[in-house]
Give the backbone structure.
Amino acid sequence: MTVEQADEQGLVLKLPYSDAIVGNPFTGVVHGGAITTLMDTCCGISTVCYLPEFEICPTLDLRIDYMHPAEPHKPIYGFAECYRLTSAVIFTRGVAYQDNRDEPIAHVVGAFMRLGKSGSMPGGGKHAGGPV
């Protein structure tokens, strides 16, 4: 993946076509998991474009609605923006597309936990890896 745009308006990532991410070798269609990874990454990194300082923000929830398969042998772009910020959660939305953002392959909404600059949970909590 490469960054195509990153500013306060959002983030655009490019996923080049590759045989390694094909889900159906007969049609050449990219596997949905590759698009999910693109959009999770895009939404997660878009938080950096929105926050005044870098914070670690792991995925809490991600929903993807697929509209149609991607065309084989063409790159896929992911666009994401943050639309709501609270003290604990950042809400994002975006689309995966190829030629035109107005003709999406998929729509996505995501929620990301704010861990702050230190990477610790609010209130000094613990995460699955033990004390923070």
The chain has one domain: 2-124. Helices lie at 32-50. The two ends are 30 Å apart (CA to CA).
